[in-house]
Amino acid sequence: MKKLLLGTVLAGVVAIGAACSNNSSMQGHDMSNMNMKEENTAQDSSKKLPLATNTEVLSGKEINLTAKEALLQINDQVKLPVYTYNGSVPGAQIRVKQGDNVKIVLKNELPEPITIHWHGYPVPNNQDGVPGVTMDAIKPGETFTYEFTATVPGTYWYHSHQKSAEQVDKGLYGTLIVEPKNEEKVDRDYTLVLDEWMSNPDEGNMDMSGMDHSNMNNGNSSDNQQMDMSSMGHDMMNMYDIFTINGKSGSAVKPLKVKKGEKVRLRLVNAGYMSHKLHLHGHEFKIVATDGQPLKDPQPIKDELLNIAPGERYDIEFIANNPGEWLLECHGDMEGADGMKVKIQYEDQTNNTDKENAKKDLPIVDMTKYGKHELGQFTLDQKYDVEYTMDLGTAMGKDGMVYTINGKTYPETAPVNVKKGDLVKVKLVNNSPKDLHPMHLHGHFFQVLSKNGKPITGSPLIKDTLNLKPGEEYVVAFKADNPGNWMFHCHDLHHASAGMVTEVKYKDYKSDYIPDPNDTTNKGE
Ligand code: C2O
Ligand code: CU
Fold first, then answer.
1. CA-CA distance, 480 to 424, in Å (whole number)?
2. Pairing relation of β-strands 173-179 and 117-119?
3. Which of 28, 59, 73, 199 shows the greatest Cβ crowding within 10 Å of its Cβ?
4. How large is the average pLDDT for residues 312-324?
5. For ligand 1, is residue 310 a contact (CB within 6 Å)?
6. DSSP letters of 115-162?
């Protein structure tokens, strides 16, 4: 958490330097006194950084990615230093066909080690990109080649798994789209990646800790700092004051063009650490897939909010049958929500018919009742080889808030021990008083069987990321069919880095990767 604070303070200085240098409200801040001269290389190098470009779409036999720094212009006022894959946030979209052999050559031009983890994709374990577990982090200047077969279609994403709470926060992610062999054609296919940013993390830190600058300078204020760290878990979220779609906020978000009669698909990906409730105005829509997996006979819905938790994906489709200009917008009263909206613009249609209604209370789609019910691969009462209960908790540790699984923090958490072919049932319970825990399993999909003791009555729900609100309890099941050591963790990556991680470990799996015990750069979460 200390690193994180330092990181955000640095970013704040850069943001102020770039965007507010003449702003009189900043005069109270004496930047020269802030004890960060050594670390603050970002400030100098940011002057030379290129502006982030538009996201490109890459396909083909060999895909080249370069991780590098850039400046992201989020809206008229705010420009932030970011980490990118190929110069954009989100990074390049990788678009391949089911059955393809995918080869990605990643070059690291960032000043620190990185990886790529293929979120949701069942890759072989040695391609999973978890430093210290499946590979060494890729050091500055180094290149690493990932290779896997595109076995399942759908909407996925990729991101660094090295110090991921920080690196994903800085923009180091992109999308992976695997088109099915027999594609049902749509007329428009848009990918929208949601995220949150801090426009002024420096001020956020001051507000929250009550520390003034003299305290910051004072090397003896460790007690104060301790208090500050412990409150961060919750207060962090208030510091994310700008919400974005595809790296842009508010009117800077590029409108989505449609023509009357077209079938439109939106692939929604949440790369941030907060849940967002999206409202599509003026149209009925269907949720056709979640986490890349199709839903059975989705019914059309209208004026219901789609809740997207960190790490989750939803593919929705609608027919453009209502000419005008409409919004897809984030509902809620969080400060940043206002920026998370995109216009859906009918071509040749200029009269603006739509109004924002972000404060309006609308029902939220209940995914446990959505689509047509049928039996999936797993049932609640069949026999399982392995059963595991995950009690997700929040506690006060000696260095601040920790997030626990059965009272322990990673790597002390008990792994889910399996062998190949096992049927595995996991009960997840969120016992944290306030925190959401979007739990993500690497390398496998699981079927959601029940919520709060009630069986799923909609379409079979197959996911890799499942959001638990405080007090909620879910039962999920999967088949251990992909040998390796796989992370199972909260995708609020602040929670993961503060302990909420375990592993699914295959008994007879022999990894060809041996972590270097002297290499301290590998940091799994
Ligand atoms: Cu999206 Cu372990 O991560
Ligand atoms: Cu969590």
1. 7
2. unpaired
3. 199
4. 96
5. no
6. --EEET----GGGS--BTTTBPPBPTT-EEEEEEE--S-EEEEEE--S
For the stretch 368-389, pLDDT in tens is 999 999 999 999 999 999 999 9
Closest by CA position to 240, among listed 151, 141, 335, 369: 335
Show the tokens assigned to 173: 């992610």
Atom number, ligand 1, closest to the C-alpha of residue 157 = 1
313 in ligand 1 pocket by Cβ < 6 Å? Answer: no
Give just the sign of the alpha carbon dihedral 431, 494, 442, 487.
negative
> Residue 65 is which amino acid?
L
Q: Is 85 helix (H, G, I), strand (E, B) or coil?
A: strand
Query: Tell me: the pLDDT tens digits for 22-73?
Result: 333 333 333 333 333 333 444 444 568 999 999 999 999 999 999 999 999 9
Distance from Cα 473 to the centre of ligand 2, integer Å: 14
Asked if residues 121 and 163 have their Cβ atoms less than 8 Å apart, the reply is no
- Report if pTM > 0.70: yes
Q: Which amino acid is at 457?
A: T
User: Ligand 1 atom 1: the closest Cα is on which residue?
Assistant: 119
Q: Is residue 15 very low, low, confident or very high in pLDDT (cuts 50, 70, 90)?
A: very low
Exposure of 375 in the CB half-sphere (CA atoms within 13 A): 6
Q: How many Å lie between the centroid of ligand 1 and the Cα of residue 50?
A: 28
440 Cα to the center of ligand 1, angstroms: 7
Strand order of the sheet with strand 117-119?
57-58, 93-97, 173-179, 154-159, 117-119
The rounded Å distance from CA 492 to ligand 2 centre is 5
CB-ligand 1 contact for 440 (6 Å cutoff)? yes
Atom of ligand 1 nearest to the CA of 487: 2
Q: By alpha-carbon position, which residue is closest to atom 3 of ligand 1?
A: 119
